[in-house]
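User: Some background: our group keeps a shared notebook of sequences we're curious about, and every so often someone picks one and asks for a predicted structure to add to the entry. Today it's my turn. The entry only has the sequence so far, pasted here. Could you supply the structure so I can complete it?
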Amino acid sequence: MGELVEDETVRAARLLDAQEKAVELFAAVVERGILAPGVRESEASDAIRDLAGELLGIRRYWHKRIVRAGVNTLQPYRENPPDRVLAEDDIVFADFGPIFEEFEADFGRTYVLGDDPVKHRLRDTLPVVFDAGRAYFAARPDITGAELYAHMVELAREAGWEFGGTIAGHLVGQFPHETIDGDRLESYIAPGSDYPMRRPDRNGQTSHWILEVHLVDRERGIGGFLEQLLTLGPPAGS
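Assistant: Of course. Here's the predicted structure to add to the notebook entry:
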């Protein structure tokens, strides 16, 4: 790890810059047609990794790279479903955690390869639910991770979907950020995370969070995923 960045304005700017580069990477993924029928999830993931190195010089990631399609989109982050070939009418999501100049990005987006209206509706609902969750967070200064998770589950239900994640986000920051594992539940937006989210981190600095939205329809065997900074940056629907 490099020298700790203490200036809060600089920290915020570096986190936003990392996210903006992730946005640039995902736009290039679409332009290059990487997520296409006939491509394996693992092949798409490797192609995105190579593109990140080519365009942005990214060589490190703080979590596993994920591309999931079809029925695999039902699976939350911690699962490792069998490698699948993207089909003609698939819904696909990508979740990457690149490190830019020692600051972490965590960015996820969903794509629909065909014209299925249900899949398009699912994709289009993701930023709406994200922005509603962010508004709920903004209006409650003492909100806990457990409270925000419960609200995300309710927002998903109101929108006609099921919330598919066991968490709805986590801390993010300068690499390596505050440990997020089963022994540090307060680092997650999840049931049982009862500490206020607006609290100093282990270095006494402002805590910054990623918000995750994972919506699923188990009957149809499809899911969608979106994540980005909760505490900084533009709305997901912008």
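Suggested note for the entry: The longest strand covers residues 208-217. The chain is about 30% helix and 20% strand.
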